[in-house]
From TrEMBL:
Belongs to the argininosuccinate synthase family. Type 1 subfamily. It catalyses: L-citrulline + L-aspartate + ATP = 2-(N(omega)-L-arginino)succinate + AMP + diphosphate + H(+). This is Argininosuccinate synthase. Pfam families: Arginosuc_syn_C, Arginosuc_synth. Residues 174-391 form the Arginosuccinate synthase C-terminal domain. Pathway: Amino-acid biosynthesis; L-arginine biosynthesis; L-arginine from L-ornithine and carbamoyl phosphate: step 2/3. Homotetramer. ATP binds at A8, Y9, S10, G11, G12, L13, D14, T15, S16, G117. SUPFAM superfamilies: Adenine nucleotide alpha hydrolases-like, Argininosuccinate synthetase, C-terminal domain. The gene is argG. It comes from Williamsia sterculiae.
Length: 399
């Protein structure tokens, strides 16, 4: 059997052309691996057949939707992960899962090389290759778009010259990546930071004014940090994301226009749609405010940020991220209860919280009759709490 290259296959122009190009340039057979992450669009059997038609000796489709939701989206929820406090890691959390399945395919199909279609400007090349290096350092890596300076024009010309059966006439002005967790859009006129997104940028969300007269109120229930029901109806994590994509998307929730710091050192402008992700992170974060002890909550907000940065930077399999996962898991023991939210006009507003694990004590918090907080303790507490600052201030004033 000839040496084999295991290619991360999306079904688009670049990876379809890559099948034929890799065969011609390296003499190796190509096994195409397509991963269903709930991205919608074409039927995955159509994608699989296209890979065969383009010259792959084998084409594998992996239904990873529940795995993606349970093992990648759920930790993102539990870490309230927003890179730069805004981006819910739509693409970043999918790459280590794809890398994992490419490594498995290499072992199952005799692959010695893994290949991807990333450019040299983006973060995904790092996420894939660091993942490969962590899971199977013996595999070689091939990145034809990056290493051979492919352009769309070169890819189209190669397809036409070699009779590759793919439609190369339709040109989208955008580069799009999507899965059930969200949708990422870049390039085209969005590269001018002054240009506002137009309606054709969006697909997962409606215009926020469309359902202005019909706001949507719902209750999300969590058990140990895991979403388990919506409006009392049991759901899996995947079902929760899908349902909230539909309902929040109808209200225009989850539209994000972000200038972000890429790992390679440049800034880029990205437009994201992540309706379900933003609702779930908002609800989960709010429930933690109710159920986590003060110092634990404060510290976890720091680790949440670090976790998001590690994942964005392609370090899903790193020792620190693994240790943070253990810490986060321990913090979720009491994160159970219900959060009520209103989705309206592109916003998510929490208006109700309840939990058997709540640390909120009405009798301590109330200013009305029944108040059990002994205010006589406060005077001495305040004096001691500010004592060091008072001493320092006195020294500075006496100079």
């Amino acid at each position: 059997m000839s040496e084999r290259v295991i290619l991360a296959y999306s079904g688009g122009l670049d990876t379809s052309v890559a099948i034929s190009w890799i065969g011609k340039e390296t003499g190796k057979e190509v096994v195409a691996v397509a991963i269903d992450l709930g991205q919608g669009g074409e039927d995955m059997e159509v994608v699989r057949q296209r890979a065969i038609d383009c010259g792959a000796v084998e084409a594998v489709v992996v239904d990873a939707r529940d795995e993606f939701a349970d093992e990648y989206c759920l930790p993102t929820i539990q870490n309230n992960a927003l890179y730069m406090d805004r981006y819910p890691l739509v693409s970043a959390i999918s790459r280590p899962l794809i890398a994992k399945h490419l490594v498995e395919a290499a072992r199952d199909h005799g692959g010695t090389v893994v290949a991807h279609g990333c450019t040299g400007k983006g973060n995904d090349q790092v996420r894939f290759e660091v993942g490969f290096g962590s899971l199977a350092p013996e595999l070689e890596v091939l990145a034809p778009v990056r290493d051979y300076a492919w352009t769309r024009e070169k890819a189209i010309a190669f397809a036409e010259e070699n009779g590759i059966p793919i439609n190369v006439t339709k040109k989208s002005p955008f580069s799009i990546d999507q899965n059930v967790w969200g949708r990422a859009v870049e390039t085209g006129f969005l590269e001018d930071l002054w240009n506002a997104p137009t309606k054709d940028v969006y697909d997962y969300t409606e215009d926020p004014t469309l359902n202005w007269s019909t706001p949507d109120e719902l209750i999300i229930s969590f058990d140990k940090g895991r979403p388990v029901a919506i409006d009392g109806n049991p759901v899996s994590v995947l079902q929760a994301i899908e349902e909230l994509n539909r309902r929040a998307g109808a209200q225009g929730v989850g539209r994000l226009d972000v200038v972000e710091d890429r790992l390679v050192g440049i800034k880029s402008r990205e437009v994201y749609e992540a309706p379900g992700a933003m609702v779930l992170i908002t609800a989960h974060s709010e429930l933690e405010h109710v159920t986590l002890e003060r110092e634990l909550g404060r510290y976890k907000r720091h680790t949440d940020q670090k976790w998001a940065e590690l994942v964005y930077d392609g370090l899903w399999f790193s020792p620190l991220k693994s240790s943070l996962d253990t810490f986060t898991g321990s913090t979720q023991e009491h994160v159970s209860g219900d959060i009520r939210l209103v989705l309206h006009g592109g916003t998510v507003v929490v208006n109700g919280r309840r939990s058997a694990e709540s640390l909120y004590d009405f009798n301590l918090a109330t200013y009305d009759a029944g108040d059990t907080f002994d205010q006589s303790y406060a005077k001495g507490f305040v004096q001691l709490h500010g004592l060091s600052s008072k001493i320092a201030a006195k020294r500075d004033l006496d100079r």
